[in-house]
């Protein structure tokens, strides 16, 4: 393959991954809007609503590490395409759910199917992009998740009002299958030589990695910020409709504002951390966590819808900075041989939070008779935990000195 062909292929790969990542975020996010008419149709209480929102993350978290292993074992392009087919099928099946149990089961299987996508896409980036370009490529994929979050409320609310919630899932599922066919055609893993293949099979003892205090600090920090991220994403649409009395379309339109600003914050956050906060990330994350908690408190106590959106926007900006900083740490702090495993473990903490947050908030809202006050204090408390966990990150010098940072021979 010529140099020009290599360049062309890597951007084809990036483009396909971006589209697939966008579809994946639409698939998982539309339930946060669709659950409003679903609850009415099935006459569900807040705990049952929480179960629906959490069931995806149960499967998604369980398959994070196995999904990465499958990508390494059978090829990232193949596993990613299979994953896209599977989650698109279960997205379409969501529109056929006939009961609470069927809906929970479908969402759980949806999570299992989508889980290998994230580690597979990371492997494909590492296969096609040199190290000095991987950060920008990964940021491009991450921006797709923010774009998906921004357009989901408008898209989902519009289609639901027009065609109903079942048609929404059918349409997105079919779209995903079309993208999966395109991935089957255009996504290819490069052919490795024997030395590279042998290098990829080098095993690093998991127990060695688990001895590093930094790993546990990052896992706890990840759990804290993603608890708030997914808790807010899952329940804000319902809160705005049920408590702030917005109609579905107005809620969808207003919900795009925090998402757009979070996208801009993501673009600015990478530059901020690279240029001005290098080596001072833990203090930066701690301050952002406390500010996020403060903005959430002010949001739930805001006197108007406009102020709710303002404080939600501010919490989204500071929360985005935390997400970026946590995601950068494994790349900066761990040796090359253990980055994949470390990322999988840290990501597991975040996805576990995605399972716990919607369910716990739903149970809390039910226990307090529809009030969100107790849920507010849970979110604020998790931000305090996030700040404390970040302050326990050891310095980069101490991390580099740890024998666990290098693989066993």
UniProtKB/TrEMBL annotation:
Q: Per its UniProt record, what Gene3D superfamilies does this chain match?
A: MFS general substrate transporter like domains (1.20.1250.20)
- Bilayer topology term: Multi-pass membrane protein
Alphabetic keyword roster: Membrane, Transmembrane, Transmembrane helix, Transport
The record's section on CDD domains has: MFS_ExuT_GudP_like (cd17319)
Chief subcellular location equals membrane
> What PROSITE patterns does the record point to?
MFS
Q: Where in the cell is it found?
A: Cell membrane
Q: Which residues form the Major facilitator superfamily (MFS) profile domain?
A: 13-398
Q: What top-level branch of life does the organism fall under?
A: Bacteria
- State the protein's name: MFS transporter
Q: Which organism is it from?
A: Brevibacillus brevis
């Amino acid at each position: 393959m010529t140099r020009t062909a290599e360049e062309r292929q890597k951007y084809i790969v990036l483009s396909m991954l971006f589209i697939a990542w966008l579809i994946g975020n639409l698939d998982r996010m539309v339930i946060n809007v669709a659950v409003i008419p679903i609850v009415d149709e099935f006459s569900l209480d807040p705990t049952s609503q929480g179960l629906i929102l959490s069931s995806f993350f149960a499967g998604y978290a369980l398959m994070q590490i196995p999904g990465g292993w499958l990508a390494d074992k059978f090829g990232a392009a193949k596993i990613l395409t299979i994953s896209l087919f599977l989650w698109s099928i279960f997205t379409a099946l969501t529109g056929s759910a006939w009961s609470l149990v069927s809906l929970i089961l479908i969402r759980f299987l949806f999570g299992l199917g989508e889980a290998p996508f994230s580690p597979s896409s990371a492997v494909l980036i590492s296969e096609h992009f040199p190290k000095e370009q991987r950060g920008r490529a990964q940021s491009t994929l991450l921006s797709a998740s923010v774009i998906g979050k921004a357009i989901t409320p408008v898209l989902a609310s519009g289609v639901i009002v027009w065609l109903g919630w079942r048609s929404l899932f059918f349409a997105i599922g079919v779209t995903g299958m079309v993208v999966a066919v395109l991935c089957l055609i255009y996504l290819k893993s490069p052919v490795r030589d024997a030395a590279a293949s042998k290098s990829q099979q080098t095993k690093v003892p998991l127990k060695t990695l688990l001895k590093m205090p930094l790993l546990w600090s990052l896992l706890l920090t990840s759990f804290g910020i993603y608890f708030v991220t997914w808790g807010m994403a899952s329940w804000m649409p319902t809160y705005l409709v049920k408590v702030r009395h917005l109609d579905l379309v107005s809620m969808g339109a207003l919900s795009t504002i925090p998402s757009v600003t979070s996208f801009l914050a993501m673009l600015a956050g990478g530059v901020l951390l690279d240029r001005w906060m290098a080596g001072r990330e833990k203090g930066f994350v701690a301050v952002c966590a406390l500010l996020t908690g403060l903005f959430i408190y002010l949001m739930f106590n805001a006197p108007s819808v406009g102020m709710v959106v303002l404080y939600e926007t501010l919490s989204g900006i500071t929360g985005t900075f935390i997400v970026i900083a946590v995601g950068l740490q494994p790349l900066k702090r761990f040796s090359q041989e253990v980055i994949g495993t470390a990322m999988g473990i840290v990501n597991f903490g975040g996805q576990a939070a995605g399972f716990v947050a919607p369910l716990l908030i739903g149970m809390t809202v039910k226990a307090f008779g529809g009030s969100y006050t107790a849920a507010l204090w849970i979110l604020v408390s998790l931000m305090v935990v996030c700040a404390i966990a970040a302050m326990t990150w050891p310095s980069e010098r101490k991390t580099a000195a740890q024998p666990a940072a290098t693989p066993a021979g």
